[in-house]
Specification:
The complex is a heterodimer of chains A (about 400) and B (about 230). With about 400 residues, chain A is α+β, with helices and mostly antiparallel strands. Helix content of chain A is about 55%, strand content about 20%. Chain A contains 15 helices and twelve strands. In chain A, strands 2-3-8-5-7-6 form a six-stranded mixed barrel. A two-stranded antiparallel sheet of chain A has the order 11-12. Classes of the chains: A alpha+beta (about 400), B alpha/beta (about 230).
């Protein structure tokens, strides 16, 4: 008990120094909390954008379609598969898509493009293409052959709302067919892939163009969460073993890589901040020990064992961390809460961010477990930082220490 | 009864480089309850002798027995326990724990000895009343004068009822009034607490008060005078 009292009072012997180190711990912890929230938010934003703007949680294709995106590699029993998938637990929405590679031409220029033939109602339950519109409507104003193009395509082909474009594709007989479409909406997707090279038309319009019934090349499924996507994909594989079923992580390994690498990023940040904190604490505690050499000598002389001296110094360090750590967590929590509500506006960097598939407004994401990890890290850092000064104290010889001026 | 026995005690510092002999073949015996001053000029070896008696330093050669124990054979931890249970130290610059009150400074050693709270409080209050600081128990060292701090140090040294009080130049930083008060106090404690007091000093007032004066010069005993 007395050891704790002495340690606590020793902590406040030099209030300026103690407050400095407490603030250093608090700022370190607050920065770490905020950075954790920021990095998590960044990654989740990236993954969310990829899933909501492009991949969905799971996709089903003809086994040959991925390697060779030919019209003939469609899913013959798509409706039947889709109905079965809808009945699976954890399935939120299912849509069927026609996918054809072709060309889009304006009076000025032409561009290679992937044409998505979509079911207007079901697609909006899967991707956010409807809410990504910056101009026009979601294939609802123009009656005949409406098309949604991205801002990128609009710029390249110098197109505006209601501009006429010609879509050219190859039908199943390898004949080139073309059809006129009119721009009904211009979207700005957060998926670079979609923004650079995809247009959306109604499934029936595309079927009419290629001549024949609607062909389905892709079934996109939205589940309840990113984490459960693989489980969902596995259960879908059992329903349709003859088809290729992939989760978003398999479809877009870069998203998966980003998510799996986040802990490495965090670890690097953690090590840097805790390392700096460690040096600060070691320095301060070493100073505190060297200033008290004679007193420590006296304590040893009158009968205080070295283990107790060691404990006292470690205790002093932990006490500083115990004040600074929670303070930093509170500051970090407040910062994160503010930005969770208001978002962090990164529009100044929006061009660059868009390139990588990020949103302009970033919302930090942080779990209770993250705070627990940070708190434990501070505790461990304080203990590690205390070891050297505490050992230095126990190495003192009482007779020499007592004669130190 | 002889409670301190030193035989051919030698201490050489810096043996491997430029050796400095602090003690050279010192033989002394001190009886229980003595009030002894070890005197001599600076560098005569009096502090070294006191440190060796107190188990703070080891002799280079020779034999030292304190309280019937050959302390040169004790390990570091055994020496710490020996000091805690047998020796009370009074230092030249008081060396109180600055963050503790007078009372807490006195109880500190009892805490190390794992005494009960009741026993610690009773002993600290008894001693601080004896040294005339009953009204300053809750003051920290920086709120006390030099003389008062040294009185707390004496109370601390006596707290665990040690067999020996070793005081290294205890009056060096005190004015004459404080010195006189402290010496009276120590003499009284010597009588009431039955502890053996050994001082190192070159303060004439301490020498006058001591009942035995051992004079050291160049690490050797020059004279050993027992006053009648």
């Amino acid at each position: 008990m007395m050891l704790t009292t002495i340690a606590w009072r020793n902590v406040w012997r030099s209030p300026g120094r103690t407050i400095t180190i407490i603030m250093a711990v608090a700022v370190g912890v607050a920065s770490l909390s905020f950075l954790t929230g920021f990095i998590n938010g960044f990654v989740i934003n990236f993954v969310d954008n990829g899933i909501q703007s492009d991949y969905a949680h799971v996709q089903i294709h003809h086994p040959a379609f991925k390697a060779d995106k030919e019209l003939k590699y469609d899913i013959k029993n798509a409706d039947e598969v889709a109905e079965k998938v809808k009945l699976l637990p954890g399935v939120v929405a299912v849509t069927e898509r026609t996918l054809i590679n072709g060309m889009i031409s304006s009076p000025k220029t032409a561009n290679g493009i992937q044409i998505y033939g979509i079911d207007v109602n079901l697609e909006s339950q899967i991707t956010n293409i409807d809410s990504s519109l910056v101009e026009g409507t979601y294939l609802s104003t123009i009656k005949k052959n409406p098309i949604l193009i991205s801002t990128e395509v609009a710029e390249k082909l110098r197109l505006k709302l209601r501009s006429k474009v010609v879509i050219t594709v190859q039908n199943e007989n390898r004949e080139i067919v073309a059809g006129a479409f009119r721009v009904d909406g211009i979207f700005e997707s957060r998926s670079k892939r979609i923004n650079d090279g995809a247009v959306f038309v109604k499934q029936q319009d595309l079927a009419r163009l290629i001549g024949g019934p609607v062909k389905i090349h892709e079934i996109a499924i939205m589940g309840t969460s990113h984490e459960n996507a693989q489980i969902l994909a596995d259960s879908i594989s059992q329903i349709a073993p003859e088809l290729t079923t992939e989760s978003w992580a398999q479809l877009a390994p870069e998203l998966e890589l980003m998510q799996s690498q986040v802990w490495i990023n965090m670890l690097v940040v953690l090590v840097i901040i805790m390392g700096a904190l460690c040096f600060g604490i070691v320095n301060t505690m070493l100073m505190a020990v060297l200033e008290r050499v004679r007193e420590l000598g006296m304590l040893m002389a009158i009968g205080m064992k070295k283990t107790r001296i060691f404990k006292m110094i470690v205790l002093e360090t932990i006490m500083m961390a115990l004040v600074g750590g929670p303070l930093g967590i509170i500051i970090g929590l407040l910062f994160n809460q503010y930005f969770i509500v208001n978002g962090l506006d990164l529009s100044a960097y929006s061009e660059g961010l868009k390139e990588f598939g990020y949103s302009n407004i970033l919302y930090p994401t942080i779990q209770v477990m993250d705070y627990v990890v940070i708190a434990i890290s501070v505790g461990v850092t304080a203990i590690i930082a205390a070891i050297y000064p505490a050992r230095k104290a126990t190495k003192l010889k009482p007779v020499e220490a007592l004669h130190t001026i | 009864m002889k409670v301190i026995k030193a035989n051919q005690l030698t201490k050489v510092y810096n043996e491997s480089k430029i050796p400095v002999t602090a003690l050279s073949g010192v033989d002394i015996e001190i009886s229980e309850g003595e009030f002894t001053a070890i005197v001599g000029p600076s560098g005569s070896g009096k502090s070294t002798l006191l440190n060796i008696i107190g188990g703070l330093d080891n002799p280079t050669s020779g034999y030292i027995e304190v309280g019937g124990l050959d302390i040169s054979t004790l390990s570091e931890n055994q020496l710490i326990d020996f000091r805690m249970n047998n020796i009370g130290f009074v230092f030249q610059s008081y060396n109180l724990i600055p963050v503790l009150t007078a009372k807490e400074n006195v109880t500190f050693i009892l805490l190390l000895q794992k005494k009960s709270k009741q026993e610690m409080n009773a002993r600290a209050e008894e001693l601080l009343n004896k040294v005339g600081l009953g009204d300053r128990m809750n003051n920290r060292p920086n709120e006390l004068s030099g003389g008062q701090q040294q009185r707390v140090a004496v109370a601390r040294a006596l707290a665990s009822k040690p067999k020996f009080i070793l005081a290294d130049e205890p009056t060096a930083n005190l004015d004459s009034v404080s010195t006189a008060n402290l010496l009276d106090l120590m003499a009284e404690m010597n009588a009431t607490e039955k502890a053996t007091f050994v001082f190192s000093t070159h303060d004439q007032r301490v020498i006058d008060k001591a009942r035995r004066v051992i004079t050291l010069e160049d690490g050797k005993i020059k004279s050993d005078e027992i006053k009648s």
